[in-house]
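Support request from a user on the community tier.

User writes: "When I paste my structure tokens into the form, the page sometimes reloads and wipes my input. The last time it worked, I copied everything first. Here is what I submitted, just in case something in the input itself triggers the reload:"
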């Protein structure tokens, strides 16, 4: 607790001196924008409000080194340890998802998290981030995008390194300044690939983004969130009857219904995630074999790679589920669109054998 007070006192001193960036501040109302942009400045720490129900993704314009900080535990290792009934050694207050070579990482706090810092190596400098817990989910930052500071280059027309648009005075764009290019810049690194390997950690990150997509209201809020998370989102006809995307989202069997509400494509991973409702329409408790959870598009069948969905339902119970599929998964892009005519299926473990969803009745909503 003494360490927490010391960090908090240091944070207050930085902010009062104007040497730190607090993304919200104490007077920011609940429901403020959850997507923020900040210029990169290694000399200025950034304070980020977080909440246990919100996954906060921090993005940089280029790849970063591995973020370092006490109290941050890899999410995949933590979940594996929990599933095996083990405990993760050390002080784990924040779950972090990061893959070497990425330009982003995702952080999610636990219920009792305190103010902690994370140091992010970026192009020979260290960007210092402080995470602190807030009471309301909508007061937390869901996406923080770092952008480059404007670069001034010294050119022939003066030390400012800018030239006016060469168009005549008064012409459109005549007052726009642009950087002076003094020569050809040589790069020692190869260009980044257009797609990234769909590693388990990256797919888990997309799974967490799906929950934000589900929580966002359709319209400008969802559009802004999708843009910040670099996702292409489609709303099904089950959620919006006027939607032309995912035209047959409801699949019914004798005992249950599966309803696709939204789908989101991550082009960098060549993957599509689904927000789906699982509804028990029977008078018996049913248990799903989630290993068989998949979607069909035309003649192609795609099995879920990562899943966060209910394993069982009581009579009449309805619960949301999230899962992610990967395209060709052999290095070739599949270019799957989120608005395809997807049909979702899953087998049952009980009671009895599972009805064949594809031969059963299918209806639109």
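"...and here is what came back when it finally went through:"
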């Amino acid at each position: 607790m003494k360490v927490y007070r010391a960090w908090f006192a240091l944070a207050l001193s930085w902010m009062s001196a104007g040497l730190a960036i607090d993304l919200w501040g104490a007077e920011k109302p609940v429901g403020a924008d959850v997507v923020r942009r900040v210029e990169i400045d290694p000399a200025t720490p950034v304070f980020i409000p977080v909440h246990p129900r919100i996954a906060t993704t921090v993005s940089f314009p280029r790849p970063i080194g591995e973020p370092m900080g006490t109290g941050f535990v890899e999410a995949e290792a933590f979940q594996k340890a929990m599933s095996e009934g083990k405990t993760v050694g050390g002080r784990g207050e924040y779950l972090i998802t990061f893959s070497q070579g990425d330009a982003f990482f995702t952080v999610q706090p636990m219920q009792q998290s305190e103010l902690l810092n994370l140091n992010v190596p970026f192009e020979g400098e260290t960007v210092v981030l402080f995470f602190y817990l807030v009471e309301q989910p909508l007061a937390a930052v869901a996406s923080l995008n770092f952008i480059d500071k404007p670069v001034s280059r010294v050119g022939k027309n003066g030390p400012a390194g800018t030239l006016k648009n060469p168009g005549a005075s008064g012409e459109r764009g005549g007052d726009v300044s642009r950087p002076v290019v003094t020569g050809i810049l040589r790069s020692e690194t190869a260009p980044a690939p257009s797609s990234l390997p769909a590693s388990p950690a990256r797919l888990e990150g997309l799974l967490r983004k799906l929950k934000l997509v589900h929580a966002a209201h359709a319209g400008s809020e969802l559009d802004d969130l999708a843009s910040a998370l670099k996702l292409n989102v489609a709303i099904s006809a089950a959620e919006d009857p006027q939607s032309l995307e995912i035209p047959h989202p409801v699949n019914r069997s004798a005992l249950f219904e599966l309803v696709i509400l939204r789908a989101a494509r991550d082009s960098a991973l060549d993957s599509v995630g689904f927000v789906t409702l699982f509804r028990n329409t029977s008078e018996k408790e049913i248990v799903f074999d989630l290993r068989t959870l998949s979607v069909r598009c035309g003649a192609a069948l795609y099995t879920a790679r990562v899943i966060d969905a209910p394993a069982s339902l009581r009579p009449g119970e309805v619960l949301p589920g999230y899962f992610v599929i990967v395209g060709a998964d052999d290095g070739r892009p599949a270019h799957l669109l989120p608005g395809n005519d997807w049909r979702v299926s899953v087998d049952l473990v009980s009671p009895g054998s599972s009805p064949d969803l594809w031969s059963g009745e299918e209806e639109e909503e």
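Agent notes: The reload is a front-end session timeout and is unrelated to the input. The chain has a mean pLDDT of 79. The chain has two domains: 2-147, 200-350. Escalated to web team.
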